[in-house]
Amino acid sequence: MLAAVETAIADQADIVCFGELATTGYPPRDFLEFEDFINSSNELIEKLTEASKDIAIVVGAPRVNPVAEGKDLFNAAYFLAEGEVKHVYDKCLLPTYDIFDEYRYFEPGSNFEIVHYKGKKIALTVCEDIWNIENENPLYTICPLDQMMPAKPDFIINVSASPFNYNQADTRIGILKENVARYNLPMFYINHVGAQTQIIFDGGSLIMSPSGKVFEEFNYFEELQKSFNLDEVIQADSENRQNKEKIEKIHDALVLGVKNYFGKLGFKKAILGLSGGIDSAVTAVIAARALGPENLRVLLMPSQFSSDHSVNDARQLAENLGIQYDIIPIESAFKTFEKLLETQFKDLPFNVTEENIQARCRGLLLMAMSNKFGNILLNTSNKSEMAVGYGTLYGDLAGGISVIGDVYKTEVFQLAEYINKDAEVIPQNSITKPPSAELRPDQKDSDSLPDYDILDTILFEYIEKRKGPKEIIAMGYDEKLVRRILRLVNISEFKRHQTAPVLRVSPKAFGMGRRMPIVAKYLS
Amino acid sequence: MLAAVETAIADQADIVCFGELATTGYPPRDFLEFEDFINSSNELIEKLTEASKDIAIVVGAPRVNPVAEGKDLFNAAYFLAEGEVKHVYDKCLLPTYDIFDEYRYFEPGSNFEIVHYKGKKIALTVCEDIWNIENENPLYTICPLDQMMPAKPDFIINVSASPFNYNQADTRIGILKENVARYNLPMFYINHVGAQTQIIFDGGSLIMSPSGKVFEEFNYFEELQKSFNLDEVIQADSENRQNKEKIEKIHDALVLGVKNYFGKLGFKKAILGLSGGIDSAVTAVIAARALGPENLRVLLMPSQFSSDHSVNDARQLAENLGIQYDIIPIESAFKTFEKLLETQFKDLPFNVTEENIQARCRGLLLMAMSNKFGNILLNTSNKSEMAVGYGTLYGDLAGGISVIGDVYKTEVFQLAEYINKDAEVIPQNSITKPPSAELRPDQKDSDSLPDYDILDTILFEYIEKRKGPKEIIAMGYDEKLVRRILRLVNISEFKRHQTAPVLRVSPKAFGMGRRMPIVAKYLS
């Protein structure tokens, strides 16, 4: 941050802006309950205050509530200038839904004074504060900018931590346009870039003219610093938009998510199991792009139920990517466990137990490689199978981070096609063959699940749209099928509770944004 | 609930009371976002309304907010009588900390009218509403009972969902006494009994006289229905208290927690690995008491590093409990994996990888038994090792529910002594020998961790009391040790993220009440 301040000074900027809770990262979660942690953030604000002698600095940080009544902290935006704290604005609208827990920590602000600086008046706001235009958002009863308008500000600054999902950039621009249309003021919207485990901040900071034109839309998934001339922003009358399709956005978000998860943990190397199927193939490509092919290692672990083409497809992919691969057949391990359990299992028939033993032998081998060589295991499960519990806990559900756990199977196919758009990276056979776990002879996903087109639509209606069984059945789906799928989702909660954090790319991902009981009777 | 209404009518009661959100269970979590789920609860309220022709029914349930502005729901207490909804009170103080997420779903109530029924005036409140006496709780700015007092109520009803921790019963009685001292009114305090996965409701409903005497303290951890005569409560002048020590409370809570986890999932049988150590021994005793010894099965899985006495201690415990046990040595499995990985591992020295392979072979065998016979695997890790990451993901950290994951090692010893108070259930040798994971020759926990007395104190200061390193060092602990332990806690967050839900018995348990970043630089 101090380096960015230097750059801004060299650029002759008057103000340099950072995002929401920039001193702590967003979200700091229960670290906020540690006085020692807040002290560290305050020390950073002191350093930035000292650095503000030749430039104004806008920076988000937690602020201790000086009053005993109410929560201990505010989610504040500091305005630092001339080596002093010139102004502090406390966020008023505190999102407490999906992945957001702000009311757990913060007291809503109620002071709507504006900032006076170098002859200009600035309406300084934090993220959600601009999301209640004309009080039409039912969650809130106050519109902070409406409160500030009597003071006649010259422009608006909003410091945000607005996480990515594949709809979010369009939603954000829509919200900014509505604000600008209402107030006729230039808007400087600053968003974070980078992933914190599950949550991916896509950047895309925005500068908007008072006429509602996008003067600048920052590149997404990329850290950038730029300076703007207020007069130019005011006069702008042409629209400068980025243009990315949904699947490209998801791809770029996942690459950033993997890259930052490793970078922030201080790890470089990943490992995963390549089955020859499309899920592990797509995961491997994303990992290779995030970490470099030299940092990805894969295991091919055929069993007696694996088809030859699976091993060939996996090997072909590894060669296409230029990644190190080892082939370790698991039959001897499987047989050892069969033998160890023969007294207990006697003549009981082969069932899901034996399927799970195979998956867990693979999980064990991958984790052994992970432990020995320091490669983090990547989970390769997709959202459709995570939803219905089609996966083995401690087996193929193992891993430090779930790369495509928020990507439905039908979207995984789209990702594979996007990856192959210029050249065949993923062998076509991995894409076209019928999906199979290959854990028993001639097994196909379609033996136990409906077609993914149908499954994914029903899941989307239930998970993303929160429709109940009656509403989904009324859309024309078979009642028995709908009830079976919804039941599978609910009874698989215990599995999802124990799986890796999932990179979030949709408006409703498994994980911290979807909090479900594990023991419950509803639809189960 | 309908049966309880019948019983109350047979008792000639005027009012029958159920707990907070009794129609949905507490907490219903994101089910509350499903219209279909709310409709189900409303149907239940309709049925109870019909059943209220001959008795008044007080029952907690979500209520749809009729106004567009604000959250969609209230956390309400219905007063049903004469076949009608006579009154609805909406909870005003919404806990949003630790395990509580109420502001995620509910709008705070702001109507403080009281109930008129059979010539009496009733102050009806929900749980947290009575926890802001004289506005001294800094979290809130309203005291609902203060608002109701001008209407001169005759008594107070509070319907609660107040989860157990080993301090909570005393805290609750203290709060009730303060309320009664302030208002001089009889208090009827109704709490839930039973566990919802991690959260254990201990019951202990309370009837208090206007002079502040405990007229009745319901048995803890037991579903009970009793009728009381208001005049007798008013005139009561002697105190009737239960008396349980902390360790007995924890024991009883864990037994109920295990019992309800299985009962609510529709499972009967458990499995776990007995190592001969104290953690698995205590877990086994609790499971046998919760489910019956006939429903518990254990595996003894010695490796080449296991001592003879470990197997003997484990066998002795199994015999003392009368539970089925099998001995399955894991050496052949371990050797199979060594062989499978010899090309990759070459001559690299034995390290934590090989320790983890052993733990995962055991996890695999336990899960195979679980899958084949329908026994849920119980996790046996204690809070001290969960805290510092001393355990193998997908190995000894596997399991459907963590029984003692909120019990520090020093408390596990106390539990073992409590269990053995009348007769030796747990072999004394399991209690007295130095703790060891037995994953390499002559390994002891003390090789890599400080004495548990010291470790647990530092962990308690950090986890329960949220003190920072400086404050803990100032208590007299070695700086290097403190920093090392706090770092271990923080960098092990990725493991805890993937482990089973932990039965909560302390004021700060791992799980939904402690939400920490996985990638973070703070103290790591």
Structural key phrases:
homodimer, 524 residues, alpha/beta, Nitrilase/N-carbamoyl-D-aminoacid amidohydrolase, Rossmann fold, 6-stranded mixed β-sheet, 5-stranded parallel β-sheet, 17 strands, 38% helix, 15% strand, elongated
Entry summary:
Chain A has 524 residues and is α/β, with parallel strands linked by helices.
Would you write up a description of this structure?
2 copies of one chain form a homodimer. The first copy, chain A, has 19 helices and 17 strands. The first copy, chain A, is of the alpha/beta class and 524 residues long. Chain A has 2 domains: 2-243, Nitrilase/N-carbamoyl-D-aminoacid amidohydrolase (4-Layer Sandwich), CATH 3.60.110; 248-497, 3-Layer(aba) Sandwich (Rossmann fold), CATH 3.40.50.620. Chain A has a 6-stranded mixed β-sheet. A 5-stranded parallel β-sheet of chain A has the order 15-14-13-16-17, sandwiched between helices. A 4-stranded mixed β-sheet of chain A has the order 1-2-3-4, covered by helices on one side. Chain A is elongated and about 85 Å long. The mean pLDDT of chain A is 97. Chains A and B meet through α2, α7, α10, α11 and α12 of A and α2, α7, α10, α11 and α12 of B.
Number of strands of chain A: 17
Q: What oligomeric state do the depicted chains represent?
A: homodimer
Instruction: Note poorly predicted spans of chain A.
Output: none
The CATH superfamily of the largest domain in chain A is identified as HUPs
What structural class do the secondary elements of chain A suggest?
A: alpha/beta
Looking at the structure, the CATH topology of the largest domain in chain A is Rossmann fold
The proportion of residues in beta strands of chain A is: 15-25%
In DSSP terms (H or I, runs of 4 or more residues), the helix count of chain A works out at 19
**Integer count of domains of chain A:** 2
Shape of chain A: elongated
What's the N-to-C terminus distance of chain A?
Answer: 50 Å
Q: Using the 3D structure, state the CATH architecture of the largest domain in chain A.
A: 3-Layer(aba) Sandwich
The CATH class assignment of the largest domain in chain A is: Alpha Beta
